[in-house]
């Protein structure tokens, strides 16, 4: 037995002995622990069934920690005692480590998760952006920020935010609107109710999201006699609502009348493990399937009924069908504006919202089925009971044939766009780079996970990435958070170390948050990071001009500058300084060669390539509502406002009158994508 194991064994023996005889008296069935020790022990005891159902594994894959005076003594000591069964991972930025934890849960389809602990003050508030991201994306993460002293004896402590009107308020109260459950632990005994409540939220399909337990630093260190049974290993149950008979009946009645149905597959399909049920249901009834960002990968890219991405970043196939559908089955999606084209798609359709959370299901005036996606699909097609009446129902055969033809045509277009010949004098654009990345994985495309979050890339990936398996496509677009990419890639790799994780990131997002490259090297969690350098915020620069604005403060060349001008940033040199291997590719051919070296590398490998900030995929897309100023001295802004007013007026017209309802399938191609 090595020295570390001997020390750890002595620590455990000491802890157990102390628990049994505090104050000279033995207390049957209790164990004396600090609040922090009890919390960590409880987390370590939670188990989850393995994917094959043959065993169990820890529910919490670990705890990301950046220590400070608000958590190093209490939580730090507790985590040290349990470092073998609940690994502690050090990061370089609090927001980034929370992103990594969230990505870990997303890759596990919400069946495993991580916790995050910080000090008080900036350490805690750095988590707020990540908390909002998890809230919007309905993803579980346990946030454990340090808090001020409950005793208030040393107030104000270092980094304390004082409220002039409420002495009970701290900076951590800012977590309340971005948490699904919030609690401040002011006494150790409170854990007996707070932790089960937190776990229920984290494992409930309807309420899933971030949980924040604020931990005052004096309470972290306070001891109490906890019931020993509280820490017994437990296999958690994941909660998802079964459909109500009456809601299923109404959905069947509406579907039976539909001739031109369309399924919109959202993230709930993946989290509900409903991909096989979706494929069977769509094939049995001839229903085309369009995918949201969160739902991409619900069907294999080459499934005959997969018509591709939907909405503002959508394919011409999906958008043409959405425009003409008479019934939309919104499956596990909250129907945000990028999916609905700011509520200008589905203008002729009734919407059935199948969602574990009725709040999400009610979007777009939908008829709601409050249920888990897989359970709802099974109920709709049940061989007995109310679902049996769908067994002989099929979409109009011409509609199904049209959908399959449009889907096949779009697959051909995607191949053409991602295999375009390159000219030395022309900078590549995102579609060229996506093609190169996919070609580099020709031997094992199903094993790659692509990670992205913000800018132009999510639009291009949504259209062009070929997701062969559920989970192969990992794009955070609920919050569209710049800086998520590399940190999210780290979380994905920790969740699936056997798979190649490819992070595609723009230069703007890279500069916002890149520190977890160093963490990935330290942990041996290899990433392939492709940096597309268009010298600024190319996506918003195009949106700015589409709204009539002049290029201003987005691309580096259009920003206020000092005498030295805008810097030329060597991303490869920077990545090497963080411990990664890195190189710059001058063109797509060099990128493909670099990707092969990256795949063979033993550590994180960063490849940068210059790209065109103006060029995008013009096929597909749809209108997106971005308010344009009513008053401007610039003619271009006034013209953009006139177009905006026309689009708003068209949205208010009866079904079939709006401009989007023109007669050909190809008219949507001219809309482009502002994203």
TrEMBL record:
Top-rank lineage group of the source organism: Bacteria
Sequence segments annotated as region (Disordered): 1-22, 651-675
Protein name, entry field: Thiamine pyrophosphate protein central region
Family of this protein: Belongs to the TPP enzyme family.
GO molecular function: acetolactate synthase activity; flavin adenine dinucleotide binding; hydrolase activity, acting on acid carbon-carbon bonds, in ketonic substances; magnesium ion binding; thiamine pyrophosphate binding
Residue stretches of biased makeup (Basic and acidic residues): 1-18
Membrane-spanning intervals of the chain: none
A Pfam family assignment: TPP_enzyme_C
GO BP annotations listed: inositol catabolic process; isoleucine biosynthetic process; L-valine biosynthetic process
One GO CC annotation: acetolactate synthase complex
InterPro entries named in the record: DHS-like_NAD/FAD-binding_dom (IPR029035), Myo_inos_IolD (IPR030817), THDP-binding (IPR029061), Thiamin_PyroP_enz_cen_dom (IPR012000), Thiamin_PyroP_enz_TPP-bd_dom (IPR012001), TPP-bd_CS (IPR000399), TPP_enz (IPR045229), TPP_enzyme_TPP-bd (IPR011766)
Keyword Signal attached: no
Domain Thiamine pyrophosphate enzyme N-terminal TPP-binding: 63-159
Lineage: Bacteria, Pseudomonadati, Pseudomonadota, Betaproteobacteria, Burkholderiales
Domain Thiamine pyrophosphate enzyme TPP-binding residue range list: 454-608
Organism: Paraburkholderia graminis (strain ATCC 700544 / DSM 17151 / LMG 18924 / NCIMB 13744 / C4D1M)
């Amino acid at each position: 037995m090595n020295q570390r194991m001997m020390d750890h064994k002595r620590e455990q023996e000491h802890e157990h002995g102390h628990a049994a005889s505090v104050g000279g008296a033995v207390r049957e069935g209790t164990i004396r622990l600090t609040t922090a020790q009890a919390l960590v022990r409880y987390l370590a005891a939670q188990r989850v069934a393995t994917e094959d159902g043959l065993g169990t594994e820890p529910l919490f894959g670990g705890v990301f920690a950046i220590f400070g005076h608000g958590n190093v003594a209490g939580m730090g000591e507790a985590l040290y005692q349990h470092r073998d069964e609940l690994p502690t991972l050090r990061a370089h930025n609090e927001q980034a480590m929370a992103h990594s934890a969230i990505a870990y849960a997303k890759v596990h389809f919400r069946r495993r998760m991580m916790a995050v602990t910080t000090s008080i003050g900036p350490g805690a508030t750095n988590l707020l952006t990540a908390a909002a991201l998890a809230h919007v994306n309905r993803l579980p993460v346990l946030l454990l920020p340090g808090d001020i002293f409950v005793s208030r004896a040393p107030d104000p402590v270092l980094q304390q935010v004082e409220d002039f009107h409420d002495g009970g308020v701290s900076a951590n109260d800012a977590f309340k609107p971005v948490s699904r459950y919030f609690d401040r632990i002011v006494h150790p005994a409170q854990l007996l109710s707070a932790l089960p409540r937190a776990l229920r939220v984290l494992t409930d399909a309807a309420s899933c999201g971030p949980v924040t337990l604020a931990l005052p630093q004096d309470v972290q260190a306070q001891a109490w006699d906890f019931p020993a049974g509280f820490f017994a290993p437990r296999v958690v149950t994941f909660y998802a609502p079964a459909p109500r008979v009456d809601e299923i009946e109404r959905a069947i009645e509406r579907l039976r009348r539909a001739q031109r149905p369309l399924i919109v597959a959202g993230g709930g399909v993946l989290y509900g493990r409903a991909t096989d049920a979706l494929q069977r249901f769509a094939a049995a009834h001839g229903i085309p399937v369009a995918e949201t960002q969160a739902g991409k990968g619900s069907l294999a890219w080459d499934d005959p009924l997969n018509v591709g991405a939907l909405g503002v970043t959508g394919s011409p196939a999906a958008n043409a069908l959405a425009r003409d559908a008479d019934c939309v089955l919104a499956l596990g999606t909250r129907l945000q504006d990028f999916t609905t084209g700011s509520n200008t798609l589905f203008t002729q359709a009734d919407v059935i919202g199948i969602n574990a959370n009725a709040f999400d299901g009610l979007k777009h005036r939908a008829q709601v089925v409050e249920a888990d996606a897989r359970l709802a699909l099974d109920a709709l097609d049940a061989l007995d009971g109310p679902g049996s009446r769908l067994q002989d129902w099929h979409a109009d055969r011409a509609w199904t044939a049209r959908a399959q033809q449009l889907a096949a045509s779009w697959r051909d277009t995607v191949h053409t766009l991602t295999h375009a010949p390159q000219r030395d004098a022309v900078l590549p654009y995102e579609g060229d780079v996506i093609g190169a990345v996919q070609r580099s994985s020709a031997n094992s495309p199903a094993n790659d996970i692509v990670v992205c979050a913000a800018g132009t890339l999510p639009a291009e990936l949504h259209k062009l990435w070929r997701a062969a398996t559920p989970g192969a496509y990992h794009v955070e677009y609920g919050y569209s958070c710049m800086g998520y990419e590399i940190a999210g890639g780290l979380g994905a790799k920790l969740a699936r170390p056997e798979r190649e994780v490819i992070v595609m990131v723009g230069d703007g997002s890279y500069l916002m948050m890149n520190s977890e490259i160093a963490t990935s090297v330290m942990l041996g969690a290899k990433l392939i990071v492709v940096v597309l350098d268009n010298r600024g915020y190319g996506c918003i620069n195009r949106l700015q001009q589409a709204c009539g604005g002049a290029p201003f403060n987005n691309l580096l060349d259009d920003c206020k500058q000092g005498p030295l001008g805008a810097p030329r940033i060597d991303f490869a040199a920077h990545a090497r300084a963080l411990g990664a291997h890195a190189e710059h590719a001058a063109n797509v051919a060099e990128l493909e060669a670099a990707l092969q070296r990256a795949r063979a590398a033993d550590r994180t490998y960063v490849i940068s390539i210059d790209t065109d900030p103006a060029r995008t995929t013009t096929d597909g897309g749809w209108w997106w509502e971005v308010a344009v100023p009513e008053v401007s001295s610039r003619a271009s802004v006034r013209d953009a406002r006139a177009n905006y007013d026309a689009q708003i007026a068209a949205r208010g017209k009866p079904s079939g009158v709006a401009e989007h309802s023109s007669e050909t399938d190809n008219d949507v191609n001219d809309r482009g994508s502002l994203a």
